[in-house]
Each structure stands twice: as C-alpha cells, then as structure tokens.
C-alpha cells in the first residue's frame, strides 16, 4: 500500500488558503476571479514540475495529465473545484484538487508504475456563487448524458449568459474570455478518452466525525424533490382590520409549514427536509401579507420515501385560514448511485490501509454526480469538523486529509490495474 505525505498536504492546504484569503480564517474565491486564477496557477506550476501536460477545455476546466506506460488506454481522472462560496472555507472543493495533486506528486516522486494516463482536474464554477447555477461546467460537459429535466437547466447558451450576482450585468462568458483559460472543446472530459472519475470531498455534514470515522465510502447522491408552496390572502391595513376579517397569508403559511413538518417527521428517520427560502409580499410592517411563497426541499435515498413526501405535499388543504394554498414542483432528482466497482475499489483501499470508515451517501450535489451519468464515477469523503461547511469554520485535520488522499491514490492504482 502507498501513502501520501502529510507535510506536502499541509503545504498545499496552507498555500491554497492564501488565494482569496478573507482575513479571518476563510476565503472568498469566486470562479475565474483573480483569486481563483492564482489557485489555478499554483496547480499548474506544481503539476508541471511533476511532468504533467496541461490542457484546458472550452469552459476553462483544467486537466493536468501524467502519461501511463500505455497512453493508448483511456485515462483515470481525479477532479474537484477551486472556487468557493462567499466567505467559504479552505476545504470544500479545493481539498479534492489538492488530493489529486498529491496523488500525482506521490506517483511521480515514488515512481509508482501505472499503465493508464492519470489526470488531476479542476472543474470551473462548481459553486455558481457568482455566476449561477451550481455545477455549471460539469452540467455543460455532461449535458448529452443528463436526464432531460436536469439538462434543460444547463444549456450552453444560457450558461454563457449567466449574469454576475454582484454587478448584475457582466456575464460568465465575459469572465471566461478574460480568464485566459478558455481552450478547445475537444479537450472536454469524455467517456472515450477516460475510463473513470474520482472526487474526494469533505463530507459537509456531521456523521463521520460523530461516529469517529476517518473515511466515508460514498455510495450515492440522495434523490430529492423541491417544491414551492404558495399562499394567497388579502392585503389590508394592519391597524384597521379586525382579526376575524383577515386573510393573512403569512399566518396561513406558518400553519401550513408546521403541518408539513409534523407529517414529514413521522416518515423515515433518514429523511431530511428544509424550508430555506420565504417570500412575503408586500413585506411591510403595517400591511397584512397578501402573498407568501416558501420552498420545501426533501431528500432521501429511497424513492418510496420521496413518493410519501410528494403525497403529503400534494394533500395540503387548498384553503387555510381563509387563504388559498397551492404547491408546485420546482424540480426533482432521482438518487444517483455511483459505480459499484469503483465504490468497491474505494472500500478495498480503505480496508487495506486500515482506516476507520463507513458507507455514506451525499446529501449535497457535486460535479461527480453529473460525471456519473457519463462515465464510471465515485467519491471519497473525509470528515468535516462539527459538520460545518460553506462557512469559514470549515476544517478537516491534515491527518484525515492525508488519509483521504492515500485512499484516493490506492483506489486510482486499483482502477489502473484492472485491464
Ligand atoms: Zn464542493
């Protein structure tokens, strides 16, 4: 068994955390921003020093490839992202890129023989925090392989027109042209030139840490439904309208929300559900609200449980507190299972290395999820301290980061040996 270097991992984590340093422990590193370009330059510098060949595709995804003894075989790719959310941490995405770099460095330094080309890759704009949507460039690259209801959100032309949430006018296409990283469409990840993709990522939840496990062997990305619940009442004066005459949409929405939680709570204990967004009109303290809309996101591996959720939502009474209530599906996604053989390679590697582990699913979306529609793919999770992610408190001890990289290395080597 081969292992990666803790010192080199720490060096990479510390170096990358400088790019976009927000000054209080975390980073803001929007895709294709100056900070993200610096992280890319660091990646390229280090990969070139390992003898890797660098390519970019037409949406600025970067591929650093070391040749195998039989370059005619399809390659193995390890990929994640260097962009972050606003005031994000030093681990989401970038740890997957750092681990891929460390695997390439270890293979090169220790002259580990391998037949297939091995690639470390950066996906552009995973977070979509400056130019929505999230997972934009894996959506573009995997477009032909995605189910229709997903791919309709990732049309190339629409993505190019995505507007900056900061200035409301500059587009993703402009950022792409300016970045200097726009390359050839023919360099895109594809199922002919590549045989497998791996993504190491932080868990972004509390399970591994709570159970004292070093590695999560990821099996799937949870299926989900996303609804908009809409409540219409009547706007009136807050001082002159007696309570019994009111049609208060916000009060009705509160009752609907609590009713939903009480019912959903009785379903499977692994079900997670969230109302994270609420719109209240006119949102003025002297006016009784006439319109409220809120989101409901529910996730579970088993489609039977998701169907129970849908049934509960679709049976919301059409009138609550004299207000009319309706529910609309915003979008749905079936559970995406990762490639069974690759999941087994991860499990074998973890077991052989003797690291504590458990099978785990991913409640969050990742580029690997889109890649898995196109070619055999799987993921490896390492713990997130206190379950925190998408915030500056994000942390994973370097020992666990290194264990993750070592699992990635041995998994790639197992995949290399199979044909
Ligand atoms: Zn991520």
From TrEMBL:
It comes from the Bacteria. Binds 2 Zn(2+) ions per subunit. GO terms for molecular function: hydrolase activity, acting on carbon-nitrogen (but not peptide) bonds, in linear amidines; metal ion binding. Its cofactor is Zn(2+). Transmembrane segments: none annotated. The keyword Zinc applies. Residues 223-318 form the Peptidase M20 dimerisation domain. Keywords: Hydrolase, Metal-binding, Zinc. Zn(2+) 1 binds at residues 81, 92, 201. Zn(2+) 2 binds at residues 92, 127, 390. Gene3D superfamilies: 3.30.70.360, Zn peptidases (3.40.630.10). PANTHER family: ALLANTOATE AMIDOHYDROLASE, ALLANTOATE DEIMINASE-RELATED. Belongs to the peptidase M20 family. This is Zn-dependent hydrolase. It comes from Candidatus Eubacterium avistercoris.
